[in-house]
Amino acid sequence: MDSLFFLIPIALIFVVIAVRVLMWAIHSGQYDNLDTEAHRILFDDDEPVGAEKKSDPESRRADSDDR
């Protein structure tokens, strides 16, 4: 029974901290745009490894000089 007098206030403190962190996240804009990150995985912006730019002959010449 004595442990309940210790555990209940600690649990209430954790709940208050969790609610404050949630309110801070909501008010600071953490949940404003949920769609961008979900769609980012669908679009591939990276160039394939070993792909050369065909429109820039200078970059190809510089690459061949490095070898």
From TrEMBL:
Record Pfam families: FixS
Compositionally biased intervals (Basic and acidic residues): 50-67
Keyword S-adenosyl-L-methionine in annotation: no
Entry superkingdom: Bacteria
Transmembrane segments: 6-26
Region entry Disordered, spans: 45-67
InterPro entries assigned: Cyt_oxidase_maturation_cbb3
Annotated protein name in UniProt: Cbb3-type cytochrome oxidase assembly protein CcoS
Keywords for this protein: Membrane, Transmembrane, Transmembrane helix
PANTHER family noted in UniProt: FIXS PROTEIN (PTHR41532)
